[in-house]
Write a structure and sequence with these properties.
single chain; alpha+beta; Arc Repressor Mutant, subunit A; Alpha-Beta Plaits; 4 strands; Tscrpt_reg_AsnC/Lrp_C; transcription; sequence-specific DNA binding
Length: about 150
Amino acid sequence: MQIDAVDQRIIALLVADARASYADIGTRVSLSAPAVKRRVDRLRATGVIRGFTAVVDPAAVGWTTEAFVELFCAGRTTPAQIGVAARRHPEVVGAYTVSGEADALVHLRAADIAHLEAALERLRAESFVTSTRSTIVLSRLVESPGVGPSTRP
């Protein structure tokens, strides 16, 4: 699918505020509301836009502690196995295969250090995990829900 500059602007505006009206977006991209709706419908139908969601501040719900955990796995552990295991843990907010020494990188969020430690111990108990290396986040410097520089409003 071809995405032109107007589509990129529409995507960026929706990423910034998914509740923006088609009329508001149209004003910003010089299109009518029905034209914006047609473009958004096309972007959804082709899978460019997969959905709309609320972005919740973890601190507002009490999950103020987070860490990135490198997983080192036994033998021929597949990415699918890691993904299935990661989904079993409510503290896991992201899991990724990575290059380098580790087999995967897992992003954990918890209420406090004790909660984080318990979550980490449950993750380490997965049968394929041979070891982990954790880095606790001290502060967030940049956080963006966007898809890259081409979609900035």
